[in-house]
Amino acid sequence: MSSQSANSYWKANLKIVASLLIVWFVVSFGAGILFVDALDTIRFAGFKFGFWMAQQDSILVFVVLILAYMRLMDRLDAQYANDNAAENSAHSDEEAGQ
Predict the structure, then answer these.
(1) Which helix (H) or strand (E) element contains residue 43?
(2) CA distances for 97 relative to 1, 44, 57, 90, angstroms
């Protein structure tokens, strides 16, 4: 993998991580702390919804984010593996022509 390709891979990886961390922050901090009073006006399974979001939903969202990260990184790895294979093939063709 060339240096430019490695840098673009790393930037794409950081973009994925940052996006997922923002979702995690909004759900855990936002729903569990900032919006708890508004959410507590709703009842879910006999509990105030703000409490439920803080205690249960944040964990479920975290698990979903892990699965999303796995899927997104698989796609990113496949994309850069294809780019790397094409780059290696072009390099091999150049060497064979010499």
Answers:
(1) strand 43-44
(2) 22, 69, 59, 11
